[in-house]
Design brief:
Number of helices of chain B: 6
Shape of chain A: globular
Number of strands of chain B: 5
Helix content of chain A: 25-40%
Strand order of the largest sheet of chain A: 1-2-5-4-3
Helix content of chain B: 25-40%
Distance between the termini of chain B: 49 Å
Oligomer: heterodimer
Shape of chain B: globular
Strand order of the largest sheet of chain B: 2-1-3-4-5
Radius of gyration of chain B: 17 Å
Number of helices of chain A: 16
Order of helices and strands of chain B: HHEHEEHEHEH
Structural class of chain B: alpha/beta
Largest interface: A-B, 53 and 51 residues
Amino acid sequence: MTAGLGIAGRREAHGGPWPALRVDERTWRGVSLRLAADDLSLLALWGDSGSVRMVVMGEAGDAAMLVLPCPDGRYPSVGAVHPPAIRLERALFDLHGLVAEGAVDTRPWLDHGRWAQRHPLGRASPSAGPAPYAFLAAEGESLHQIPVGPVHAGIIEPGHFRFTASGETVVRLEERLGYVHRGVEGLIAGAPIERAARLAARVSGDSTVAYAIAFARAVEAALGMEAPPRAAWLRALMAELERLANHLGDIGAICNDASFSLMHAHTGVLREGVLRAADRAFGHRLMMDVVVPGGVAVDASDASIRNLGDLATAIRTRVAMLTDVYDDTASLQDRTVSTGFAAPELVARFAAGGFVGRASGRDFDVRRAFAYPPYDRLAFEVPVRSDGDVNARVWIRLDEVNASLSLIEQILTGLPSGAVLTPLSDRSGEGSALVEGFRGDVLAWVRIAGGLVQHAHLRDPSWFQWPLLEACIEGSIVADFPLCNKSFNCSYAGVDL
Amino acid sequence: MSLPGLLAEGLFLSPLTEAAQDPADADIAALAERLQVTARRRLGRSLAIRHVDAGSCNGCELEIHALSNAFYDLERFGLRFVASPRHADVLMVTGPVTLNMREALERTWAATPGPKWVVSVGGCALDGGLFAGGYACAGGVGAVAPVDLHIPGCPPSPAAMLTGLLTLMQAAER
């Protein structure tokens, strides 16, 4: 029994920020209805061999993982009553073959009919080959469809967007993703921890540090250990550098999509500065494979620490200047203000995190709600706005840039000395972790036995943001789509796995 | 500082753009031979590049974007990214080639008029990298289209990509 959420179930051994409860169908259905009533939020939903799991959250800090065995290969659909679960269930079926009873949308999501077999992580059967995808219909006079992708005009990940338009106005946008599905969870299953960690670090390359921290902490939770303090602080330093680099790049790119390329040129310079400093301190511009289970693989030298301090000071001054430019350019504000409105009620229902959530009034940040070291010792602001438009998503990023700079300075000052890596034990166990990546909460879950990862699940924050993009473009003009899309900057690779 | 101030500042500061590393003559010669390009100049001094993400984690894309920043500034060499394969001389492909992207990559390659070259970028694009052997990937760009140049790295640095593209351009000139 979980006192906080009042869910009946048998506690199972599980490390991490929430307990694991083995439940029956009745409890599973009851929790689904609580999700539908906005009493609980859905953090994740995935399949394991012969069971389904979901993580739900009440007030910040109170969560639980439900485990429902499915001996008949079926389970009560959560998506039937709670739309945020729909795509997760479609993906679950594609990979594991577990049927969501009562599901309203049974179209394949990840499976495009191109693999040799269906249900590669469950009971595999021969694939029937590709079939036309049944896009949702829109009815009305003088409507036309605009198909975009998977190959897009710019340098960007692939996905398909099916617009239905009336003149220039978007009547409906439907996304079809899955093009970047690499089979990460299948490759991780049975792999040694070190190889699994390298795969986890490459689920979404621009969030490699956040994913590596989530995976490492899940492994450490499973094995009942903690990374040494200096490693935890260095991980946070890298996480804030990653957040900083991505936000700087995004702010410029959003302005660029409104044809204001000056901002893009200047933020590009700042971003390059961050990457070079990261390379100097940790040996890799994106800091890939530096965070590992047990700690970090590279310790930053004192010289590179000082270099990072100088960088933070320089960036703060430049960002203040660029913020004024953004604020003072009326023609740019004309494009970003009141464009791409993401309604707060939708954002809350989907439990959308990151800057998407916080720009529409959802005050949630893992570094505070499920605080992990060293954030429990650091002082930082979590900016929240309620306008929910492209402009708000730019301002949240500007605010978070300043927050990250402040965090970096605190980390550099308070960095403890000591070891940076603890050897992993050869215990077996299950563990979860939640980490605040630049897009929002990254969730990791692992089951370890004998130095191998039996199964892992990695849940990208974009699962709960992509659907909101469809909602926010309705009624806008097609030409505003790149601006809205860039203001969300959802991960394709992260959700495709 | 407002916009006029920022623009004025740009008039007085030195450019950030850095010299690129000249490709080694041996590399150019070797690549030219592999391409079996004749001495006839075919393309002048530019390359139009169409990028295709065939299943990358997006790390390579970040560094490809960096090629357009003030430090690397690939356009000063006559290298530029184009929106359509029909405008391209080069296909720059990242990712292990997921089976879900295979047809899109094949069609993009077919839509690119000759003469054309294919550059595979990053460890995954070479042979599938960490994703090789799984059910979802074809195992590298070479499994789908003939590759003329591979730029290794995970991801390759912008400097490495720039050197590789310059090598291709100078080899194609010969």
